[in-house]
Amino acid sequence: MRLAPSIVPADRLDRDIYLVLEDFGARAGCAWRETDEADTDLETVLKNILSGQYAYPVGIVCFNAVDGWSRDATAEVADALAERAAQTDAEVPLVLQDFINANATRPFHMQLALPLRSIS
Fold first, then answer.
1. DSSP string of 6-55?
2. 15: number of CA atoms within 13 Å, CB side?
3. Fewest beta carbons within 10 Å, which of 47, 62, 63, 90?
4. Average pLDDT of the segment spanning 112-120
5. Do the beta carbons of residue 21 and residue 74 sit within 8 Å?
6. How many CB atoms lie within 10 A of CB 18?
7. Average pLDDT over residues 67-73
8. d(C-alpha 35, C-alpha 45), whole Å
């Protein structure tokens, strides 16, 4: 049996590709988000999640087609998001906090701002 050569250049697939599974609610269910090829690296996925591009991420898969492997990267991404949230003063939405708490391998504690009251 003769194998046909791939029509996709190997250099485009010889990297780690991250895809996000998102929950669209009870009526629509979960689906893998359609993503531009250039936006499938880890750094871009982290930025997109933190900026709200994904409202309800459920899981993340990483694969490398040339090397022939795939793995669940949900915990890795949750840990990276927790680290970024701790390093910045950006407000982390409750949904994202829930995702991090459910999937991170290290505990995530967000310091909430407390209102100051003047004492008279």
1. PSS-HHHHSS-EEEEEEE--TTT-EEEPP--GGG-SHHHHHHHHHTTSSS
2. 13
3. 90
4. 53
5. no
6. 21
7. 94
8. 10
* Averaged pLDDT for residues 27-51: 93
Sheet of strand 30-32, all strands in order from the earlier edge strand to the far edge: 30-32, 17-23, 57-64, 69-72
> From CA 89, how far away is CA 91, in angstroms rounded?
6
Could you identify the residue written with the tokens 């459910």? 102
Q: What's the token pair of residue 82? A: 């927790």
Question: pTM value?
Answer: 0.76
User: Six-digit token pair at 113?
Assistant: 């701002």
How many C-alpha atoms does 53 have within 13 Å on its Cβ side?
16
Please state, in angstroms and rounded to a whole number, the distance separating the CA atoms of residues 100 and 85.
10
Is the CA virtual torsion 19, 16, 110, 108 positive or negative? positive
Length of the chain: 120
Rounded CA-CA distance 85/99 in Å is 13
